[in-house]
Amino acid sequence: MATKSLTTGTAADLLAYQSFHHVSRNMERLTRVATADQQWIVRDWDGEVYCIKFEKNFSKKHLFTFSKDVDRTKTQAQAEAAKPGVRSDAENWHNAELELLKSKIAKNVDKRAVSTMCSCGHRFNQHALPGPACTVGGCGCAAFATPYKLARKYVGKPTEDPLSGASTTRNSCIILNWVPKAEFEDVVVRSIQAHEKPAGWAKGQPLAVTAAPPGSAAPAVAAATKALRWDFGLARSGAIVLAVRTAVGPPPVYNYSNFQGCWVKATKIGSEIGKQTWEIFHMESAPPHALF
After folding, report:
1. 19-22 — which CB contacts under 8 Å span 24+ positions?
2. According to the lineage, what is the superkingdom (predicted)?
């Protein structure tokens, strides 16, 4: 699968995209590759390579970028310029990016809020398992599918529902465009080194975390699972956004809170000479690993 990346100079460039033919627009567009296919390669001061992978739809649920649609951002920037007050073109563009970002975050939460609801109007647990048909009398639904999944399938996107999972009306979002790429990579590396090469570790010694490859026993997985602290600093406040839907509406009402750091849960799943593989599977947001 041929992949592409953005060229923003920010952490958004770490994400991989693939082309697909958008059926309703009859044109080629980019869509983010599935979470399982996202992979970051970062290096530390000692030449150690860290391969960062993701599990459980983490990428689509928690990693956000500004809109890729330049024309849409341009239209929003014109709307910002028409508002009262005097602002530079750069300020209007930046405000447009933020407005579209909030819209993207809100849509993400809206979709996750009904992720257990089928397009037929009945919940996932009302569909027969392992058979997918709806069990509600007279429904006639042949297979569970969220409206979001059907919409993506209709336009030809290769990953039909990257937001599947437990329903929620809140989400912790990492804004990749908010942090320069090199700075972001440094934060990720240092969060792993805090466990792999803790205080007192010396070059040549074994790393402090033993890998638990897929299929390992529960105790080994637990020992290889750590909370990684990603602190982007006070100057990057807003790199983490907590979005909470406070009212259904219409229109829905959202509260947005800015933070400079977060914790993510990750498991070391592979180890080779000079290369360590970690898989991120959960975004922490409650004590003792609350956003900060």
Report:
1. 20/156, 20/157, 20/158, 21/156, 22/155, 22/156
2. Bacteria
Confidence of residue 164 (pLDDT cuts 50, 70, 90): low
Residues 242, 172 contacting (CB under 8 angstroms) = yes
Count the Cβ atoms, other than its own, within 10 Å of residue 236.
20
- Confidence band for 175, pLDDT divided at 50, 70 and 90: very high
Task: State what percent of residues in the chain have pLDDT above 90.
Answer: 61
Give the amino acid at 133.
Answer: A
How confident is the model over 76-95, as pLDDT tens digits? 999 999 999 999 999 999 99
> Which amino acid is residue 124, in one-letter code?
F
pTM score? 0.82
Q: Are 230 and 187 in contact, with CB atoms under 8 Å apart?
A: yes
What is the SS3 assignment for the chain?
CCCECCCCCEHHHHCCEEEEEECCCCEEEEEECCHHHCEEEEECCCCCEEEEEECCCHHHHHEECCCCCHHHHHHHHHHHHCCCCCCCHHHHHHHHHHHHHHHHHHHHHHHHHCCCECCCCCEHHHECCCCCCECCCCCCCCCCCCHHHHHHHHHCCCCCCCCCCCCCCEEEEEEHHHCEHHHHHHHHHHHHHHHHCCCCCCCCCCCCCCCCCCCCCHHHHHHHEEEEEEECCHHHCCCEEEEEEEECCCCCEEEEEEECEEEEEEEEEEEECCEEEEEEEEEECCCCCCCC
* Cα separations in angstroms, 17 against 38, 152, 158, 251: 9, 16, 11, 31
